[in-house]
Amino acid sequence: MNRKQLKEILNELKTELKIQEPIKIELKPMKTKAASISLNKNKIRINKNLLPNLDPECIRYLILHELIHHKLKSTYHNQEFQKQLTQKINEEKAKQLERKILTTLLQINH
Question: Which end of the chain, N or C, is less surrounded by CB atoms within 10 Å?
């Protein structure tokens, strides 16, 4: 998936979540994370080593996950985070995608 496609997913999800602020995506090698967000810099970091090994559905989930953190201005996976997430994707599907992402992360690091 190229940067243009990532930007399209980002903009689509920002619209869905009613997020107005500009948010950048940075591709960066990471050992232990699939993605993260800097709430101060409005920047989502995606593991560039993981990206080629994920299907579009997993990538969309990663961006959604980080945007919900942005929307809530919190990096916690608390009840409000779970509520927002399950409004966009059912809980079982989210767990399935998370397993897929984590399994892939483990595979590329070993």
Answer: C
